[in-house]
Amino acid sequence: MAEAAEAAEPGNLAGVRHILLVLSGKGGVGKSTISTELALALRHAGKKVGILDVDLCGPSIPRMLRAQGRAVHQCDSGWVPVFVDQEQSISLMSVGFLLESPDEAVVWRGPKKNVLIKQFVSDVAWGQLDYLVVDTPPGTSDEHMAAVEALRPYGPLGALVVTTPQAVSVGDVRRELTFCRKTGLQVVGIVENMSGFVCPHCTECTNVFSQGGGAELARLAGVPFLARPLPSPFAGSVPLDPELTRSLEEGRDFIRDFPQSPAFPALSSIAQKV
Ligand code: ADP
């Protein structure tokens, strides 16, 4: 592990306008995917975006943005985040940059995780940001509490909740919504991911899982259902899209390179609503 910044100025997120935590009840539902594509869509809308990856035990954003192996440097005001694009419109901080190899495991107890998350907030030279997107681990854990506590001084905190359509995932999301209520996070919306698969040959949709759980949950919780309504049967959801999987594996810019893909309209529309 690299050494943490020792003499950084506190308050390095003072220049942020909106903070959005991306939450999910369980792993593998596409939380890091949504965080990544939201950041890219905001960037293409002309915004300056920071991504804070506090999924300490499974940091996948560096790989999804082809930033794996990049180094974090120090300057007078703390750690300099990794700039993902040449225009420096997306800055990223992740424990993945502090590990000696991508296969290294973070085996830490809560207090050590809390210290690192606080440092990611106060010791990183974030500069002026329109949005800080915070990718969190699944569930509600020490990392969530540490992030909420560290970020709260910088303004109201929004939450974007990601689910898959199955009832079991939706049940997990109910717990996320309770967490948001108890910690004062404002739920800006629910995204239902992996909802339906469009056959690339006949364009017919198959609902691989069940359908409509996210929309129902949003209705019950009284929060917006964020992905743009697509023609039935996709109403308000991000479909399973092999081009999205490929794009993430290759660390490509899906929003720029795959505008014809089934997942593009829903993914790009989320940025217009946060
Ligand atoms: P989480 O952060 O919730 O653990 P990830 O974002 O890492 O989940 O997604 C898990 C896997 O599913 C990744 O390999 C990702 O490429 C893939 N994936 C996520 N959403 C979609 C989608 N809509 N279509 C196709 N693949 C997806």
UniProtKB/TrEMBL annotation:
One of its GO terms (molecular function) is ATP binding. Keywords: 4Fe-4S, ATP-binding, Cytoplasm, Cytoskeleton, Iron, Iron-sulfur, Metal-binding, Nucleotide-binding, Nucleus. GO terms for biological process: iron-sulfur cluster assembly. Its cofactor is [4Fe-4S] cluster. It comes from the Eukaryota. [4Fe-4S] cluster binds at C199, C202. Binds 4 [4Fe-4S] clusters per heterotetramer. Contains two stable clusters in the N-termini of NUBP1 and two labile, bridging clusters between subunits of the NUBP1-NUBP2 heterotetramer. GO terms for cellular component: axoneme; centriole; centrosome; cytosol; nucleus. Signal peptide: none annotated. It holds the Pfam family ParA. ATP binds at G25, K26, G27, G28, V29, G30, K31, S32. It is found in: Cytoplasm, Cytoskeleton, Cilium axoneme; Cytoplasm, Cytoskeleton, Microtubule organizing center, Centrosome, Centriole; Nucleus; Cytoplasm, Cytoskeleton, Microtubule organizing center, Centrosome. Belongs to the Mrp/NBP35 ATP-binding proteins family. NUBP2/CFD1 subfamily. Heterotetramer of 2 NUBP1 and 2 NUBP2 chains. Interacts with KIFC1. Interacts with NUBP1. Component of the cytosolic iron-sulfur (Fe/S) protein assembly (CIA) machinery. Required for maturation of extramitochondrial Fe-S proteins. The NUBP1-NUBP2 heterotetramer forms a Fe-S scaffold complex, mediating the de novo assembly of an Fe-S cluster and its transfer to target apoproteins. Negatively regulates cilium formation and structure. PANTHER family: CYTOSOLIC FE-S CLUSTER ASSEMBLY FACTOR NUBP2, NUCLEOTIDE-BINDING PROTEIN NBP35 YEAST -RELATED. This is Cytosolic Fe-S cluster assembly factor NUBP2. It comes from Mustela putorius furo (European domestic ferret). The lineage of its organism: Eukaryota, Metazoa, Chordata, Craniata, Vertebrata. The gene is NUBP2.
